[in-house]
Design goal:
Strand content: over 45%
CATH class: Mainly Beta
Largest sheet: 10 strands, antiparallel, barrel
Shape: elongated
Order of helices and strands: HHHEEEHHEEEEEEEHEEEEE
Radius of gyration: 24 Å
Number of helices: 6
Strand order of the largest sheet: 3-4-5-6-7-9-10-13-14-15
Length: 343
Amino acid sequence: MRTKIILLAVLLVVLPGLMSLSAQDGGIPDLATFSESFEDFSSEFAKSLPMNSAIGLNWSDAYIGQLLPIPSFGVGITTGFTTIPLGVLEDLVDDLGLDSGSALGDLPGIGAPLPGYALDARVGGFYLPFDAGIKFGTIPEMKIGDVSVEYTNFGFDVRYAVLEGGLVLPKISVGAGYNHLRGSVSAPLGIGNTRIASVPDPEDENNTYVLALTDPNVDFDWTANVLDFKVQVSKRFIVVEPHIGLGASYGWAKTNSGFDTQVTVFESDGVTESAISASELGKIAGVSIDDKGLSISTEENPFAIRAFGGASLNVAVFRLDLGAMYNLNSGAFGATLGARFQL
């Protein structure tokens, strides 16, 4: 099950590997290594969220037009994925002192796929040549084996037809919209009771505190609010309508990563329980810790430019959309598949 939840796989593979590495060499990694590495990973992960939030309303028509005397409209479903570039995951593994080849061997070369889906609908405007769309997709908190997942994606957009198209000319539209994305993944690490990290005592250079976790769950969650702007061109050829476009996104993203577990602090021998509390140790290390867990949060304002394109197969009132996206900033890829009924 761990390898099927690819987003979580990096944590489920990397962290037990790090525990095994520390056991082999007799050392315990510094907590600063964990916090800095996961802050960097979370920051780069946040930059992948704007493109993932764009899943939904990926219709080939640059403008759906008007069917007088009532506006054109359509309803459907879109599913797809975007990737977290492999380089981001390799940096995390390297920072933690592991062999990226073995730790990330199950991941594809394009990176870790981050899936998404949405039910979507679009209606043509009255009088003026514009259309408006809305989307919503959610997976309520649920368990798949030992893995808990949750996902929500909703948003809307408005597109104005600069060129309505015709027998020869294509459709060209410009649009703006808002997307909200949030999700979480949690699973047991299966590493039992583990001395996970050390923290130097700032008042005694000869003393080091040792942080221990009891049967930890690893938790990762994210939230993003994204403004999206795009220009799109499409042209129908009998039953096929290809399209290309360019989008720009600006977002407010937050990620949290950590362990849900009982936290115990030991002296440098790793055996004697310390009088210092977990929360006090967290203040020393600059990490949020209490007796119920450890967490690291990051906030980003990612900006991304993406190129996108694809085509739809149009048969009567049925449309089948296939699309692809490419993040010009990070090199991340994405793909979507949609089906809809449209008048």
